[in-house]
Amino acid sequence: MKWLIRLVLAAAANGVLFLIAAVLFDEFSLSFTGWLVGTALFTFFTMLLRSVMAALARKYASSATFLGGVALAWVGLLLTDLFTSRENFDLEGVGTWVFVTLIVWVGTVIYDQVDDRLIDAVHNRSKGRPAST
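Structure tokens predicted for Phage holin family protein (133 residues):
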């Protein structure tokens, strides 16, 4: 059950981040369908790759954590861009790629700070227990 809550919360956070990036960058075109498909694909790819990155981070310590997070965001965006039609999800230009990757990465870092607390609160609430502080 916790993985489902984590998946839904991550998808919601990623969807908001894509909307912010699309508003800020003219070279990031995003239709409603592209937003839905892109959010789903990006969430899937990043959750799948996260375990690989976590293993590398444990092995190579803090420098891998920073670089791995940025790389994870970039690879997730690249795969999403490749698997989604250009009419629905399209990133163009080096600057757009760099800044959208950084926006998504920063948003993910912020989300990760509250992720476990949100998961526990939702899980406890579904079990009828009060949320722990």
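The CA atoms of residues 18 and 131 lie 30 Å apart.
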